[in-house]
Structure formats: C-alpha cells, structure tokens
C-alpha cells in the first residue's frame, strides 16, 4: 500500500505503539485520525504530527463499542475515505482468570470485537473500491501465550485468528492485512503491570521482560510501516518469536512443559 495521500485511522494512538504508528504513518504522507479513550494523549499525538509537518486530528472515543468505532470513521471523512485502519488499542485485562464476567467482556470488546466492528464498517466499502488495508497490533502472546493473564492471552490469539481470516477471505479482493506480534515493548501497558500491586500481574510482566529485549515503540512502528508498504502479513519485531513459534508447533507437549518450568522460575 502507498501511504502518501492515504487516510488512516489508528486506535489507541494516545501513547505507546499507537502514538509511534500515528507519527510514522503521518510522516509517510497519510492524513491520520488519532483515536484514543485518553483525549489528552490523543491531542498530544496530533501536536507531535503537526510539529513534524503532518496532518492529523484527534478523536476521543472508546473502541469497545460500535459507536466508538463509527465515531472515528465519520471523523475521517474530513480527510476522505478511509484507506487504512490500524487496530492497536489494547488492554491487559484482569490478572489470572479475572474476578467476574465484566472483566472478560471488557478485554474481549477492546482486544477483539473492536477489530471485528471496524472490519464490518470498512471492508464492504474497501471491496467496492478494490483496495484497503487492515493492521492488527496483536502480540507474541497471540502466537505463544501470556503467563498470568488468561484474558490477554485468549484475546490476542483471537486477534491473530481474525487477521488470518481477513487476509484469506479478502486478500484476492484488493485488501491487505498485516498482523504485528511483538514481545516486550516499552509502553504504558507494560509499565502498568510491572508496577502492579498484584503478584499475578507482576508475574505476567516478568514473563515478558525476561523473555527478551524490551523494544522501543518507534522500532515496532518502523517495521509495521515497512510491512504495509510491502504487503507483509506477519510482523515479528522480535525475530526470536518465530523460533519459539516453530518449537511450539513441532512439539506441543514439550513446549507446555517448558512454559510451566519458565512460570515456576518467575514465581
């Protein structure tokens, strides 16, 4: 996909990977809608883009609802039809199994259903136009697992699965899909569990920080922009994830035993 002159929406763009993606995509020549539940964070991202000579507007919205997703799409009309949607907004969810159904509803809504809702709005128009691009910012947890957080692990697996389905179903109709699966990235999401008072949340954080390099969000954004331009589906900022994924698939029993052992060292 050519980003110059395109219109893009990035969710969760008020900080972290989303902010880095918004700046990188705007720098590449796109007009960007910066969506986030944190209006002040979104406005800061827009100022960063403007300072770099780019074009952007902020939308304070909650992607956990259909109306929240629709609000961003309607706002983008100030620039023109949407060409690119980056489903980046994500939450860790409750530690362990969660305390109640509301925990699961929230993490499912933000980490999975927001992607589905955006696709339902945008994909039919993209098919009519013959082009469009959907980026899912998932996680290495979607290919492997996330210790200490069932909701996060399950929803990131689902996000990867939905991306695969989109790519298979619409890839011959002009729609590109990329799925980004990093391990540790220096974001508020990670720092939030590192500093948590909950021991299970801290275990989840340790599982990430000890597994490999904690990368800067700008590095993830750079690789994602390259993937959009080349039409690459799977984006692995941490190259070692591919080896881990292959080991998992080649001997599931051994992998699960190894993950139990790793979990015990963290505890």
TrEMBL record:
It holds the Pfam family adh_short. One of its GO terms (molecular function) is oxidoreductase activity, acting on the CH-OH group of donors, NAD or NADP as acceptor. PROSITE patterns: ADH_SHORT. Keywords: Oxidoreductase. Transmembrane segments: none annotated. The keyword Oxidoreductase applies. Belongs to the short-chain dehydrogenases/reductases (SDR) family. This is SDR family oxidoreductase. It comes from Mycolicibacterium hodleri.
